[in-house]
Structures are given as structure tokens and as C-alpha cells.
Amino acid sequence: MQLERWGPSGECRGLVLLLHGGKPRSTQAVDGRSLSWQRIRALGRDIAPRLHEAGLAVWVHRFEQRGWNGNGADRIADAREALVEAKELAVPVVILGHSMGARTAVQVADEPHVRGVVALAPWFDPRDSVEALAGKRLIAAHGTHDRITSAKATQAYVRRASAVAAVEYVDMGPLGHYLLRGRREWNLVASRSCLDLLA
User: Fold this and answer.
1) How far apart (Å, rounded) are the C-alpha atoms in residues 110 and 119?
2) How many domains does the chain have?
3) Which of 41, 130, 165, 173 has the fewest CB atoms below 10 angstroms from its CB?
4) How far is residue 149's CA from residue 185's CA, in Å, rounded to a whole number?
């Protein structure tokens, strides 16, 4: 596990933990050349100034391996390890995940210091549990031109999660998966959602 940490200049009032995407199956190590990690890091850099103004720290997590690999147990363990470190700040946490990172985020949202999840172009599966979101908030944003993950699957997951959590679905219109086209819109939704959940 590797964490890149960017903190506000003054008192830290909250933390946004960013989790990057990956692949259904791969044991390849995630290094600095990983495009999934580079994308979430770039988003973090873009939104950090606005979050810092609100007293929020931004941490970018790098998974050990690229793949979800079955039940995602290793990625979930990765994220929980980062949340153990986050707990030392004694502030509320929002997890912002893209694709596989969002799938991981909703499975670790049951940590007591986690306020909620912001899911960008998430990779949700009908078999994924919503129980870890109980009593939390979920904001999920998806574009209709995403050919990698499914906006309809995200909508279905949000509907299921509404039984246990406060949920919101954001239609990103004709945007795709990789947070590149419409970068300004993705950044705006990401920063607004994190500020909303940590208000």
C-alpha cells in the first residue's frame, strides 16, 4: 500500500481518500506508470485546492495489484489498511473512488469514521452487497457514453443502496469512463460531492 498525502495549510477538518480503478483480473503490481492511478491522482490534484480551502486533506491510495480478482478481498484489505492510517487523524472521511476504486469504496464504508462514498463511473455488480453503506451517504455519477462500466448497473445499485443509505445519482450526460473528456465536469462533481458529504 502506498499513500500520497496532501494536507491543508491550516487545521485539518476532514479527509478525502481517493481510490483508483483497475481490471477484473490482474496480479500485476500497480506502479507509477499505471494509467488508472495517474487518472485519479490528476483528479486529486485538480480538486485539492478547493478542498484544502475547506480544511480537507486529500490522500491518493495506490493499490498493490491492478485486479479485483474474484471477490476483491485483497483490494478491500488494501483500502481498509489506508483507512486505519486515516483514523489517526481523528476526522471524518469520504472515500472517492473511480471504477474499481468505487466498487472497493462501498465495501469499506462501514468503518466508523467514514461519512460516505463518492463513486465516479463506478464498476458495480448485481451481486455486490450494499450493507457496508448502512447509515452512510452515497453519491454516484455516471456518463451515458461509458462503454467500460454500466450506468444502468450504477442506477440499479443506487436503488438497492437506498434501502440502507442516503443516496444520490448524478447523470453526467454524454461522458465516458476515463474522466478525461469532460474533465472540468468530473472535477466539479467530485469536489462538490466531497464538500457536501463532509459539510
Assistant:
1) 15
2) 1
3) 173
4) 18
80: which 3 cell numbers? 481498509
Task: Check residue 164 and give left, alpha or beta (phi > 0: left; psi -120 to 50: alpha).
Answer: alpha
Query: What's 30's DSSP letter?
Result: P
Q: How far apart are CA 104 and CA 97, in angstroms?
A: 8
Residue 169 has what pLDDT?
Answer: 98
Alpha helical stretches, state H, 131-182:
151-161
pLDDT of the residue at 1: 66
Chunked into runs of 10 residues, the chain (199 residues) has average pLDDT values of 92 97 96 94 98 98 96 97 96 98 98 98 97 98 98 98 98 96 97 96
Q: Residue 156 phi/psi, 5° resolution? A: -65, -40
Task: Collapse the DSSP code of 57 into the 3-class scheme (helix H, G, I; strand E, B; otherwise coil) and give the result.
Answer: strand
The set of cell numbers assigned to 75 is 483490494
Host domain of residue 180: 2-197
Query: For residue 177, what are the CA distances in angstroms to 44, 77, 87, 199?
Result: 17, 25, 31, 28
- What residue ranges in 1-136 does DSSP mark as E strands? 2-6, 14-19, 56-62, 93-98, 114-120
Q: What is the CATH number of the domain that holds 127?
A: 3.40.50.1820
Question: Cβ atoms within 10 A of the Cβ of 37, count?
Answer: 25
Whether 148 contacts 180, CB under 8 Å: no
Query: What per-residue confidence (pLDDT) applies to 199?
Result: 85
